[in-house]
Design a protein that fits this description.
With 62 residues, the protein is of the alpha+beta class. It has one domain (2-61). It has one helix and four strands, in the order βββαβ. The chain has a four-stranded mixed sheet, with helices on one face. The two termini are 13 Å apart.
């Protein structure tokens, strides 16, 4: 699960609560999703964890 919230009229913050420190900021929801996807993949790679194949996307808008 990831969370995306609008911080201001032109800023969004997205994070994955189960991965401490895995957070991004972007100018749109779509951009936030893309950046967070890359951040999650990098986070898992840094831990030497295999990337899951069939992950259903759960986004909570706050």
């Amino acid at each position: 699960m990831v969370k995306i919230v609008q911080e201001s009229s032109d800023r969004f913050r997205a994070w994955c609560p189960s991965l401490p420190g895995c957070m991004v900021r972007a100018r749109s929801q779509d951009e936030a999703r893309v950046h967070l996807d890359h951040a999650i993949r990098g986070y898992l790679a840094s831990l030497n964890v295999a990337e899951p194949h069939n992950v259903e996307q759960h986004v909570v808008m706050g």
